[in-house]
Design a protein that fits this description.
Layout (H helix, E strand, L loop, with lengths): L2 H14 L6 H13 L6 H6 L7 H11 L4 H14 L3 H6 L2 H8 L5 H19 L7 H4 L7 H10 L10 H10 L9 H11 L7 H12 L27
The structure holds iron/sulfur cluster.
C-alpha cells in the first residue's frame, strides 16, 4: 500500500473510531489475541503465578523496575532474591553491596535507599508483613500509587488498576480518558468509571505490551495496530 493510501486508511479508521464503553471488552480481547505468545512483563507474570513471589518480593521488584527496562529489572530482582527474600535478610546486606547489585538498574543509590527504608518500616510498623491497603502501602518510603496498586493487584488479588506511563498513554490515545500529561492518578480514577472490573488487573499487562511494541511514545505504529479502527488517536501527531 502506498504511503498516501496508508495515511488515508488510518484517517478513515480513526474517524470511524466510535469509542464507547461497549467497545472496551472487544478492544482488550483483540489485543489479548494479538499478543498471544508474547512474553508479559516481569511483574505481570507474577499475576499468573509464574514467579511465585511473596508480596514483599513483588514490592521490591517493583521498586527495582522503576525507570529501567523490564529485562534488566527481572535479572537484578532474581540476583537479589538469591541472597535475600525478606526485609530482615535485605537489611543484613551492607548498603554498598546492595548498591552494587542494583547498579545496572539506574538510580541505584535512590533505589537502595528506598528498599532499605521501606524494609525497615515493614519490620517496625507492620510486624514484618507488607500491608494490604493502599493508604498503608503509600506510607512506605519510595512507594507511589503505581507500586501500591501493583502490590494490591498482583499480590493481594485486589481489584485495582495499576496505571503506568503505557496505560496512561494508550488510554488517552484511544479516547477512553482525557487526562493531562503524566496525570496517572486521574487516569486511574477515570478508568475505574468505564473499565469492566474483570480487566482492572489485566489492563496493565495488556497496555504495557501494546505501548512497548505498537503504541510507542513517539510515532506509534498505527498502520499495523490491531485496534486502529477503534482508536481516536488522541494527541498523535506523527505515526507510522
Ligand atoms: S498505535 Fe496507538 S494511537 Fe495508533 S491506532 Fe493503535 S492504539 Fe491508536
Amino acid at each position: 500500500m502506498g504511503k498516501n493510501a496508508k495515511i488515508l486508511k488510518i484517517t478513515i479508521n480513526s474517524k470511524k473510531g466510535m469509542n464507547n464503553k461497549k467497545q472496551i471488552p472487544k478492544i482488550l480481547e483483540t489485543l489479548k489475541k494479538f499478543q498471544r505468545g508474547t512474553r508479559k512483563t516481569n511483574l505481570n507474570r507474577e499475576a499468573k503465578e509464574e514467579q511465585n513471589y511473596t508480596p514483599y518480593q513483588t514490592l521490591i521488584s517493583c521498586l527495582i523496575s522503576l525507570r529501567v527496562k523490564d529485562e534488566a529489572s527481572e535479572k537484578i530482582s532474581k540476583e537479589l532474591f538469591k541472597i535475600a527474600k525478606t526485609p530482615e535478610e535485605i537489611l543484613k546486606i551492607p548498603r554498598k553491596k546492595l548498591e552494587k547489585i542494583l547498579f545496572s538498574s539506574g538510580y541505584y543509590k535512590n533505589k537502595a535507599k528506598a528498599i532499605r527504608k521501606a524494609s525497615s518500616q515493614i519490620i517496625k510498623e507492620y510486624n514484618g508483613f507488607v500491608p494490604h491497603t493502599k493508604e498503608e502501602l503509600l506510607t512506605l518510603y519510595g512507594v507511589g500509587p503505581k507500586t501500591a496498586n501493583i502490590v494490591l493487584a498482583f499480590s493481594f488479588n485486589q481489584h485495582v488498576i495499576p496505571v503506568d506511563t503505557n496505560v496512561h498513554r494508550v488510554s488517552n490515545r484511544l479516547g477512553w480518558v482525557k487526562t493531562g500529561k503524566l496525570k496517572f492518578e486521574k487516569t486511574e480514577k477515570e478508568l475505574e468509571k468505564i473499565l469492566p472490573k474483570k480487566y482492572w488487573r489485566e489492563i496493565n499487562g495488556i497496555f504495557i505490551l501494546h505501548g512497548k511494541k505498537i503504541c510507542v511514545p513517539i510515532s506509534p505504529f498505527c498502520s499495523t495496530c490491531p485496534i486502529r479502527e477503534f482508536c481516536k488517536r488522541g494527541g498523535v501527531k506523527k505515526s507510522r
